[in-house]
Amino acid sequence: MSLRLSTVILPTDRWHEGGREKWRRAEELGFHTAYTYDHLSWRTFRDGPWFGALPTLTAAATATERLRLGTLVTSPNFRHPVTLAKELMSLDDISGGRITLGIGAGGNGSDATALGQEAWTPKERADRLGEFVPLLDRLLTEESVTERGTFYSAEEARNIPGCVQRPRLPFAVAATGPRGLRLAARYGQAWVTTGDPKIFEEGTPEQSVEALRGQIEKLGKACAETGRNVAELDKILLTGFTPDRGRPLESLDAFVDFAGTHRDLGFTEIVIHWPIADSDFAADQAVFEQIATEALAQLG
To answer: Environment class of residue 78 by beta-carbon count within 10 Å: exposed (0-12), middle (13-18) or buried (19+)?
Structure first.
C-alpha cells in the first residue's frame, strides 16, 4: 500500500516574515499536502501570534502551484455552513482545485467560547457536526439550497459556479466515535485521527498501535453499514498526539519505522508538524527535511 507524507504548518508567522517561505518550502520538499489548524487561537500558542486559516490558505494557494492545501480541522465551534461553503468554493477556485477540508466536531478549548456562548458538551458537538456536514455537502454540490435545521439553516443560499473539484472538494472527517465515523463513511473522502487521547500521557506506542487498529476496524464497520467500501477512504494520521510524541522526527530511521508500522495498519497518509522551536513541535529542521525527501523511498 502506497503512503503519502504531508505536513501541518501552524499559522504563527507573519506572511512576509517567514510564513510564505514555509509554504513554498513545503512544496519544494515534495509534501503531498500542507494543512493548517482552523482555530481562533490554540493551546500554548494562545498568547502569541496566530492568523486565520482560510486567509492563510488563500495566500498559500497563490504562493504554490502543485501542493495540496487544507485544514486540520475546521469545526462548528465558530463556523457556519453557509458562509464556510462560500469561502471554500472561492478558495478551491483560487487554488485551482487543490483544497481538502478537514472537518471535525471541535473541542472545548478557547474556540468553544470565543463567540460568547457556553462550551457545548461532547453530545452537543456531535449533534451539531451531524447537521453541519450534510448541509455543507449540499451547499457545495447544489446551486441553491434552502433548509431548516435545528442548529443551521439556509435560505436560497447560492454557490455558483461550484467547486473546481467535482462534485465538490474532498472532506476529511476527523472522528473516533460511532456518530462521527458514520459521517466519515457517508460524506468523507478521507478519515482523520490523532490516536486515542486516553493513552497519550501514560500509554505506550504499542498500545497506541492497537488503539488505532481498533479505530480502523470501527471505520470499516461504519462503512459496511452505509454500503461503502472502506478502501475508498484515505486514512490520515495526524502525528504528535500519540505516546510516541516527537520521537518519530528524531531521525530518519525512527520515522521510517514509525511510518511503516502505521502504513501496515492501513493508513494512507501521515502528517507531521513543521518544526516550531521552543514548543511541543520542536524538531531539527534538517532531520525534518531529510524525512520529507527520503523517508518514502526507504519505505518502498
So the answer is: middle
28: left (phi over 0), alpha (psi -120 to 50) or beta: alpha
The x, y and z cell numbers of residue 53, run together, are: 486559516
CA distances for 163 relative to 13, 56, 70, 212, angstroms? 29, 19, 15, 33
pLDDT one-digit tens code per residue, 205-237: 999 999 999 999 999 999 999 999 999 999 999
> Residue 80, exposed/middle/buried by CB under 10 A (0-12, 13-18, 19+)?
middle
34/13 Cα distance (integer angstroms):
15
Closest residue by Cα to residue 187 from 163, 169, 200, 203: 169
CA distance 27 to 5: 12
**Tens of pLDDT, residues 243-268:** 999 999 999 999 999 999 999 999 99
Place of cell 523511498: 297
Amino acid at 36: T
Q: How far is Cα 251 from Cα 231, in angstroms, rounded to an integer?
A: 31
